[in-house]
Amino acid sequence: MVGARCSARGRGRVHDVLLRRKEVLRQRNYQFSLSTCLLGFCIFVSIYAFCIGIHRQRNHDFAINKPATSRENKSRASVKNSENSIVIGPTIHSLNDLTQDELHPKASHNRHIVSPPPDDKPISLVTCETTAGYLHIIVHPSWAPLGAERFLQMVESKYFASKVALMRCINGFLCQFGIAGKSEYNKQYNKNLQDDKNWLPEGPSHRTNELGVKRFGKGYLAYAGSGKNSRGNQFIVALKDNERLGGGSPWEVPWGEVVGKESFDTLDKIYTGYGEKGPSQGRLHREGSSESIKKEFPRLDYILGCKLVDSR
Hints:
Blueprint: H1 2-65, H2 70-84, H3 100-103, E1 124-130, E2 133-139, H4 145-156, E3 164-169, E4 174-177, E5 220-223, E6 235-238, E7 256-258, H5 261-269, H6 281-287, H7 291-296, E8 302-311
């Protein structure tokens, strides 16, 4: 009897152990199945995301390479402007945007070796668009009446819209321009002007003053010439302060100057690598701003147009 009872108890215990082991195995199988499902889901999500990324990249590449509509171009320009703070269009729109020193300059410790003639005639704001940026020019008829009048006539006749080459630009010195991009435009201004009276102090002893200010300031505008009464349709603008210009050559009397930071930044951007070896005056007179000149001098800058913005 005792042996039978022990045998029964032993079998019961073995049965309990087997049941517990079976339950453990069932739980392990469940956990393994769950892990497998989760792993499979993660792999699926990763593959799906990868495929979506490739699809979007292909669409992006296609959007970049396909021809854009005018609306898309405007939208891209707007985004570029907001993200990179690129200024679209000129920053000066009227004489009201300028300071009194810019409107009616006087001699100071860092600019103008002497005070220019007082403005007893209306001054004008002309904005020229160039391939290097905008140039804002104040034209002062009281500085050089005949020279100022000729320049304003050229602006009003759309002369500079012919694409005028900045043909002789020398680093640290000056840039010469004025020959029309279309040769027939030059005929209107072939007649030379009489010289205006020079208001700058002349001679070697007046190259700088006691404050170190040089005679011909950066951004001064005058005519190019070759003798008495030789001013025509060519100009110079100083790329740096210069002590020699305006010291006696009658054509170098300033009739205006560029104003505003944007203008001085543009002067610094004008390409000067060709120097004296740019397109010759004779060739420009014959060809204008031709395709052959563009190919031979690909980095040459141009004036694309000038507009009278304001006057008072």
